[in-house]
Specification:
47% of the residues lie in helices and 12% in strands. The protein is globular, with a radius of gyration of 23 Å.
Length: 377
């Protein structure tokens, strides 16, 4: 039993160890001076508490110097403005070291780099009328259909450039596009609005697990009809991401920040089964796991799959399950709060610039694989 606190008049009886947590008696929420302070003081139960635990996991452990953080992005986050408001600050602060995203997030990210406006709207509109007026809707985000056409034309011009006429992985593709996005930002006078531009400047590799499933992939396909354009090698992405994780785990710890689920979530987590199961190399799984999702686990879908389930696949180190947090909430609500908390509670980290080191890390993976195969003979 826990001994009672003689200085607490409400603590006159011995307490169960189950009652050793913080007492729920927060100050008035209006007294908090920042979002970070509000989270610490008032987010004490249910998914608010999971968000507080996630914020502390990120700032207290995942942002240590020896931890490399991979981030997955699903859902339509960039059209809602979360690229410039949340993801770019994380990249520039060195809080995110590599990214796996849907292609759609990166395609819509380019609208911001090109200074093509998106507008706050309503989900309660007549979509037939929107079509007649040339307006496109993503729930309550509205924009002119010319935004899509201008972005498509820009990509089609890029993909006919000399530097794109070769085989490459998606990290190389997005690095090239990011260089142009950086230039578009400078021309528009809006630096810091594009994820791909920030990733280019900071050396953060950006992968897409389904490269054909977006308008970027569609425009690559259009170039192929003319016998030109980049040839995307998905196997290169699988090997490069596995090499990143193996290098990280041989020299420190690996953390994953999962925004939503879907293919990006699986792709960032499958690095461990690729190392352990397919390549047969010694590994135990990612060390830190922080996911924001609104998917239920009982339907059997990946987006709701818990870190405990991931342990059975070797994706998460079973010894690290106490350092796994799932917050069941909308990413557009959680991510701005998480970023604000991290920026207020942790200093920026030196950039790891993993993009520039992909070749060396892949060489390490190949070397270890060859040594292991010789040992098995």
């Amino acid at each position: 039993m826990t001994e009672p606190d003689p200085n607490n008049p409400h603590d006159s009886q011995p307490r169960s160890p189950y009652l050793s947590g913080r007492r729920i008696l927060p100050p008035a929420a209006g007294d908090a001076e920042s979002a970070a302070e509000l989270i610490d003081q008032a987010f004490l139960a249910y998914n608010a508490s999971r968000l507080r635990e996630g914020c502390r996991l990120l700032t207290d452990k995942m942002l240590a110097d020896d931890v490399t953080v991979g981030m997955s992005l699903a859902g339509a986050l960039t059209p809602a403005g979360l690229g410039g408001s949340c993801i770019v600050p994380l990249v520039e602060a060195g809080f995110v070291d590599w990214i796996v995203s849907t292609g759609a997030n990166l395609y819509h990210d380019l609208h911001f780099a090109m200074d093509l406006p998106m507008f706050v709207g309503s989900q309660s509109v007549n979509d037939t009328e929107l079509r007649e007026h040339g307006v496109v809707r993503i729930y309550d985000v509205l924009f002119d259909s010319e935004v899509l056409l201008k972005t498509d034309r820009a990509l089609q011009e890029l993909f006919r450039g000399e530097e794109y006429q070769r085989q490459m992985g998606t990290a190389e593709l997005h690095h090239l596009i990011g260089g142009q996005a950086d230039e578009w930002e400078r021309q528009a006078g809006h630096k810091g609005v594009s994820v791909l531009a920030a990733a280019y400047r900071c050396g953060v590799p950006v992968y897409v697990s389904s490269p054909g499933d977006s308008a970027i992939g569609m425009n690559v396909a259009e170039a192929h009809l003319d016998g030109c354009g980049p040839h995307i090698d998905p196997a290169r992405d699988v090997n490069e991401t596995a090499a990143i994780v193996m290098h990280v785990k041989r020299n420190g710890l690996s953390g994953v920040l999962l925004c939503g689920g879907g293919s990006p979530k699986n792709f960032i987590l499958q690095t461990e089964p690729q190392i352990q199961e397919v390549l047969g190399l010694d590994e135990e799984g990612h060390d830190y796991f922080l996911q924001v999702t609104d998917a239920r686990p009982d339907t059997g879908g990946l987006s709701g799959a818990t870190p405990h389930e991931a342990v059975s696949w070797g994706k998460v180190d079973p010894e690290r399950l106490p350092d796994a947090v799932v917050c069941y909430a909308d990413t557009t609500i959680v991510l701005p709060l998480l970023v604000n908390y991290a920026m207020n509670r942790h200093q920026p980290r030196p950039l790891k610039r993993l993009y520039d080191r992909r070749g060396d890390m892949l060489g390490e993976l190949v070397g270890e694989l060859e040594a292991a195969r010789k040992g098995r003979k």
